[in-house]
Structure formats: structure tokens, C-alpha cells
Amino acid sequence: MLWPEDQREEHSAEMRHALKMLRRAMLVAALVAGVLMAFATFRV
């Protein structure tokens, strides 16, 4: 499938934004997991 230039550019921008959000979500998930593991370690 071939897209017009402007649409393809918009799509790449959306993909970049989605990747940024995904990376941020993964970072937050890692931080939450680390905090939970720390709490579990201190409880035991």
C-alpha cells in the first residue's frame, strides 16, 4: 500500500508518539514493580 506523502508523514509522527507513550508506560511499570518488590522485601 502506498500512502500520499503527507499522510505517511502523519502516520510516522503518530507511531513516534505511540512509541514514546509505550516507553513511558514501560518505565512507570518498571518503577512500580521495583517499589512493590522493595515493599515485599521489607515486609519479609
What would you say this structure looks like, in words?
The chain has a domain at about 20-44. Helix content is about 90%, strand content about 0%. The chain is rod-shaped and about 60 Å long. It is mainly α and about 45 residues long. It has one helix at about 5-44. The model has no long low-confidence stretch (mean pLDDT about 85).
Q: What would you say about this model in short?
A:
With 44 residues, this protein is mainly α. It is built from 1 helix and no strands.
| Quaternary organization | single chain
Fraction of helical residues? over 70%
**What about the largest sheet?**
none
Approximate strand percentage: under 5%
Number of DSSP helical runs:
1
Task: Give the integer mean of the pLDDT values.
Answer: 86
Uncertain residue segments: none
Distance between the termini: 57 Å
Which key features would you list for this structure?
1 helix; 44 residues; mainly alpha; rod-shaped
Question: Secondary-structure blueprint of this entry?
Answer:
Elements: H1 5-43
